[in-house]
Design brief:
- By secondary structure, the chain is of the alpha/beta class.
- The chain is 48% helix and 14% strand.
- Strands 1-2-3-4-5-6-7-8 form an 8-stranded parallel barrel, surrounded by 8 helices.
- β6, α8 and β7 form a beta-alpha-beta unit.
- α2 packs across α14.
- It is globular, with a radius of gyration of 19 Å.
Length: 320
């Protein structure tokens, strides 16, 4: 299907997920190979379960200080070049009538966009996008609200807007935001800013080095969803959750979840193992063993396997 690039089309897919009690996957990318892996995973799942126009969000960060994915796309490390390269690649893979991924409905997403550092992506870049995470988490709360509200008022006619109320945990900077007034603060934030989604602090850790280590705040997610009136929560740091925790996200009111670190790490480990297995042929000069294409194909296949399994856990099968 053509790349989704209007608010109304994006809302239709979000409502489709809500109606079927499923959680939309936001799979991040920092390369062309991983971008295609997302589409392969969605296409494979759709074929297996006979799902038409299967929706998935493909996300990229711009100048995010913890991980600029747009800079990783090209050797030049220029974020605008990387961003546009991925968007043009998505257009080719999604919009071409002969593409093997025509059955995938892609919602391109700008992740962790800072009000100052990512100004180009937040304004001119939205012509390529279905949704934006406006990330003012490092600002004092009242300034965060003012900035987020202003952005939503100006651009929400064009894109869906995610807001974030406070800093999330990353390695070396683990936060504790478990105060008793969290539900009231979070619902107040959504009401005052007018955002479509809230990136909530549910105990997870972004860019985690392990799986199943986080204390996922399941009851907070359910209480917050009840207070908001419908599923509006976006979960970051999903890479640190065990499968059983991911399986419950849609029931807990998580409408979208964000994942990249685990996929990139495990795909790299798998591809490296396969590379070592053909080391003798590689150093003997065998072209197919040495050429980088095989490493990338191994990475795509492993990444797609992980994402397909994740979609199963997110209840994508309900979309049949």
């Amino acid at each position: 299907m053509p790349l989704t690039q209007s608010r109304q089309e994006a809302l239709e897919q979000i409502d489709r997920m809500r109606a079927n009690k499923a959680c939309m996957a936001i799979f991040c990318t920092a390369s062309h190979w991983n971008t295609e892996a997302v589409l392969k995973a969605a296409s494979d799942f759709a074929t297996r379960h006979e799902i038409k126009d299967i929706p998935v969000a493909v996300a990229i960060t711009y100048n995010y200080r913890h991980m600029s994915q747009a800079r990783r796309v090209t050797y030049s490390q220029d974020p605008k070049t990387g961003f546009l390269a991925i968007m043009d690649y998505l257009r080719r893979l999604c919009n071409d009538e002969d593409s093997p991924y025509r059955n995938v409905r892609v919602l391109a997403h700008l992740d962790h966009a800072n009000p100052v550092d990512d100004q180009w992506a937040l304004t001119e870049g939205i012509d390529y996008l279905a949704s934006v995470m406006f990330d003012a988490q490092n600002y004092p709360l009242e300034e965060n609200i003012a900035l987020t509200k202003a952005y939503a008022e100006k651009h929400s006619a064009r894109v869906l807007v995610e807001g974030i109320m406070e800093e999330l945990s990353v390695p070396g900077n683990i936060k504790d935001h478990r105060g008793d007034d969290y539900i009231a603060k979070a619902t107040g934030y959504v009401k005052r800013t007018g955002v479509d989604f809230l990136v909530a602090d549910l105990g997870t850790e972004q860019q985690s080095s392990g799986v199943g280590k986080a204390v996922y705040l399941k009851q907070r997610a359910r209480d917050l969803t009840l207070a908001l009136g419908k599923p509006k929560l976006v979960l970051h740091g999903t890479s640190c959750l065990a499968d059983e925790q991911i399986r419950s996200l849609s029931e807990d009111g998580i409408i979208r979840m964000n994942m990249w670190t685990r996929i990139a790490r495990e795909a790299g480990q798998y591809a490296a193992q396969k590379l070592m297995e053909r080391a003798v042929r590689l150093f003997a000069g065998d072209f197919e063993a040495a050429e980088s294409n095989q490493y990338l194909r191994d990475s795509v296949e492993k990444s797609a396997q992980i994402m397909t399994k994740t979609m199963e856990l997110l209840q994508y099968g309900n979309l049949r």
